[in-house]
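Quick one, C-alpha cells below:
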C-alpha cells in the first residue's frame, strides 16, 4: 500500500483510501452480469451443464466406454522387453596337486529379452470382450437415465416455484379482501348497524392470513433454492405459465399402450437392466470357459552376457518361437463355484428386469391418468372458480342489502381462495405428470422441451416478489 504524502493528514488519507475502495467495488459490481430471468429452456441448459449428478453420470459413461478397448487389448499381441544387469562375486575353492586353491573373481552379468505373445485361443477373454460391450451399454443407459431424471427434477422444481408464487398472490388477495371486510364491519358497528362478532370473524381470518403468508414465503424460498441448486446460478425470476396457452394447447396423453411400447423400447431404466442381464449371461459364459484350453503363440529373443558361471565374459543370443498350450485340470472347485455364482446372478438379473418392467408399467399408468384426469380436473376447477367468484360477488351485494352476514361473505371468499388454489395445483400437477410420462418412457428431448416451454408466457405481468 502506498504511503500517505506528508502534506496530507492521516484521517484524510484514510478517507481517500476508503473512497477509492468503494469506487472499485462499485465498478466490479457494475461489471458483474446481472442475474437473468429463466424459462424452462434456459433453466434446462443451465442444469444440463451444472448439475453434479449428471456430470457424475457423464464421467461414468466416459469411463465405461473404455471397457471394450481394455478387453480387446487382451486379445491382441503382447510385446514385452526385460533388461537386467547384476554385479557378481565368484569365489571358488579347488585342490591343485593336493594343495587347496582359493580364487575370487568379480564380474558383471546381464540379460536382455524381447517377448511377443499372440493369443490364438482364449475363450475367457472373448467372453470378457462381450461382457465389456454390455458394460458400455449400461454406462450409456445410466447417463440417459440421469438425463431423464434431471428433466423430472427440474420441471418439478420449476413448477413448485410457480405454485409458490401463485400461493403468495392468492394469500395477498385474500388478505386484502379480509382487511376490507374488517374495515366494513368496524364501520357498521360504529354506525350501530353491526355486531362485534362480525369484527371478530374478520380479524380471525386476517390473523390466519398472516400465518399463511409466512408459510407460503418459506415454501417459495425453499422452492427457489431448490431450483437454484439445479441450475447452478442465481436468477432474477422465472417465466410464469400462460393460462390461455394451456387452455388452447393442452398436453395430450394419447393412448397408454403407445407409451408402454415407447417405454419398452426407450426407457433407460429397462436398457440399464437389460445390459446387466447381458453382462450376467457373459459372466456365466466366462465361468464355463475356464474349463476350456488356451493356446498362445510365443516368440522370444534373449541375449545374455556372462549369464552363467561357466560362460563368464561371453555373450549368448537365443531365439525361440513356439506354441503354448494351457488347460486347467483341477482348481480346487473354484471354477464350479464361479459357475454356480454366475448362474444365480443371472437369475437375479432376469427377475430384476421383470420386476422393473412391471413397476414401470404401473408408474406409466399412474402418470397417464394424472394427465388425462388432470385435464378434466382443470376444466372442472375453472368452472368452480367462476362459480365461486359469482358466489363471492352475490354474497357481498347481499351483505350490503342486509340479507347476508359477514360470516357468509368470509366463507364465500374462503371458498373462492380454495378453488383458485386447487386450480393452480391441478395445472402444475398435470404438467408434472406429463413430464414424468415422457421421462419414464425415455423420450423427453429438446423438441418436447420446446413444446412445453411454449406454454409459458415470456412477457408476464409483474407478480409478487
Amino acid at each position: 500500500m502506498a504511503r500517505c504524502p506528508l502534506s496530507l493528514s492521516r484521517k484524510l488519507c484514510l478517507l481517500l483510501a476508503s473512497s477509492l475502495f468503494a469506487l472499485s467495488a462499485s465498478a466490479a459490481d457494475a461489471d458483474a452480469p446481472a442475474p437473468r430471468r429463466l424459462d424452462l429452456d434456459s433453466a434446462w441448459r443451465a442444469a444440463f451443464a451444472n448439475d453434479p449428478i449428471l456430470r457424475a453420470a457423464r464421467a461414468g459413461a466416459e469411463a465405461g466406454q473404455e471397457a471394450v478397448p481394455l478387453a480387446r487389448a487382451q486379445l491382441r499381441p503382447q510385446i514385452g522387453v526385460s533388461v537386467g544387469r547384476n554385479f557378481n562375486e565368484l569365489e571358488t575353492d579347488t585342490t591343485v596337486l593336493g594343495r587347496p586353491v582359493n580364487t575370487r573373481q568379480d564380474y558383471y552379468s546381464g540379460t536382455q529379452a524381447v517377448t511377443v505373445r499372440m493369443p490364438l485361443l482364449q475363450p475367457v477373454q472373448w467372453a470378457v470382450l462381450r461382457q465389456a460391450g454390455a458394460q458400455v451399454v449400461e454406462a450409456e443407459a445410466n447417463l440417459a437415465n440421469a438425463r431423464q431424471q434431471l428433466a423430472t427434477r427440474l420441471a418439478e422444481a420449476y413448477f413448485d416455484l410457480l405454485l409458490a408464487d401463485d400461493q403468495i398472490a392468492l394469500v395477498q388477495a385474500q388478505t386484502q379482501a379480509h382487511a376490507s371486510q374488517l374495515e366494513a364491519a368496524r364501520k357498521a358497528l360504529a354506525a350501530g348497524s353491526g355486531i362485534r362478532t362480525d369484527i371478530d370473524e374478520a380479524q380471525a381470518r386476517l390473523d390466519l392470513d398472516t400465518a399463511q403468508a409466512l408459510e407460503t414465503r418459506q415454501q417459495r424460498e425453499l422452492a427457489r433454492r431448490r431450483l437454484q441448486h439445479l441450475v447452478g446460478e442465481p436468477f432474477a425470476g422465472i417465466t410464469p405459465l400462460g393460462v390461455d396457452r394451456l387452455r388452447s394447447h393442452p398436453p395430450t396423453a394419447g393412448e397408454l399402450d403407445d407409451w408402454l411400447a415407447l417405454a419398452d423400447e426407450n426407457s433407460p431404466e429397462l436398457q440399464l437392466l437389460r445390459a446387466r442381464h447381458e453382462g450376467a449371461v457373459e459372466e456365466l459364459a466366462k465361468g464355463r470357459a475356464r474349463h476350456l484350453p488356451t493356446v498362445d503363440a510365443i516368440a522370444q529373443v534373449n541375449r545374455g552376457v556372462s549369464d552363467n558361471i561357466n560362460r563368464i565374459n561371453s555373450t549368448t543370443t537365443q531365439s525361440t518361437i513356439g506354441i503354448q498350450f494351457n488347460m486347467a485340470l483341477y482348481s480346487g472347485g473354484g471354477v464350479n463355484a464361479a459357475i454356480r455364482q454366475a448362474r444365480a446372478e443371472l437369475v437375479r438379473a432376469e427377475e430384476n428386469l421383470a420386476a422393473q418392467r412391471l413397476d414401470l408399467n404401473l408408474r406409466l399408468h399412474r402418470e397417464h391418468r394424472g394427465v388425462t384426469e388432470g385435464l378434466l380436473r382443470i376444466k372442472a376447477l375453472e368452472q368452480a372458480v367462476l362459480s365461486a367468484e359469482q358466489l363471492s360477488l352475490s354474497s357481498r351485494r347481499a351483505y350490503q342489502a342486509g340479507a347476508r352476514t359477514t360470516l357468509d361473505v368470509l366463507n364465500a371468499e374462503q371458498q373462492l381462495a380454495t378453488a383458485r388454489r386447487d386450480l393452480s395445483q391441478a395445472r402444475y400437477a398435470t404438467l408434472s405428470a406429463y413430464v414424468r410420462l415422457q421421462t419414464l418412457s425415455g423420450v423427453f428431448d429438446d423438441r418436447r422441451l420446446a413444446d412445453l416451454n411454449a406454454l409459458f408466457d415470456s412477457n408476464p405481468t409483474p407478480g409478487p416478489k
